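Shipment paperwork, digital attachment
Item: protein structure file
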Amino acid sequence: MTLRCRDLVGAAIVLVLACSPVTAQEWPNRPVQLVVGFAAGGGTDVVARIFAQSLQERLGKPVVVDNKPGAGGMIAAGQVAKATPDGRTLYLVNNGHVITGVMQKSLPYDTVKSFEPVSLLATAGLVIVVHPKFPADNLKDLIARAKAEPGKLNFASVGVGSTQHFSGELFKQSAGVDMLHVPFRGSPAAITAVIGREIEVLFETIQAVLGQVQSGDLKALAVTGRERFPGFPEVPTVSEAAGLTDYDTTTWYGLVAPVGTPPAVIEKLNKTLAEIAKEPAVQERLAKAGAVARTSNPEAFGQHMTNELVRWEKVRDSARIEKQ
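Attachment content:
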């Protein structure tokens, strides 16, 4: 072989190695960016920082939470979808990511296909609350009152197309009742309206109303998930309280990466996250944020997001909610 040929062969080998997918042993060789589509301090941000801290300790490289709020997470999702799929950019999604896909006429990315699912991370049920003086001691009483006065009761949410809104619409469909939806700009305004008796019913995250329920300013009738929440052990689920076995709605959090991210990176991340979720300190911090650690394999999380799209599309169509 001539010297020139050897040089060409050597160059080709270097090129192939440079273009080869990164292995689990090589990753991460640089800091990892964990993108959050909401401002610091919210539920999604809190979950992101809990897992980011433990990820950094286990991976041995900085894991930096990057808040990119705006347009209900669409700005962040769009940027992550276009990011280089090398494992350096990750995206912490919540169920709002799916509902945005259900509510928007067009998006610069595909809600499911533009991302590689890594793992479910945690779930957080919502809670149905009323004013302490509202004439309903339990959820069955509320349903009976709503059926006796169709369209007269109202329920608040943090906005059209929000998780709280869709939870209320699903409840109406499951219970066979008619209640008027009143959207507010954010949880504080909606909570204040219920405490002030301007609104009868509120579907809200546990984290947002935990203090008001504990102080007695609000009365919890039921949690919306299939299991009771550890922080409200005395509050039944909707299924337990009213026999609505098909009703189940939770806020969930999960991790995705840009489509094309090497399988070795996805596998290593998934395994590491499963280990982190078992840490007592992580479980304790999540509980204070109103959440419960709950991981999955990538395939199951991907199927979960697909199923959520189908389910909320049906709720949207049944409630005749227009896309935005």
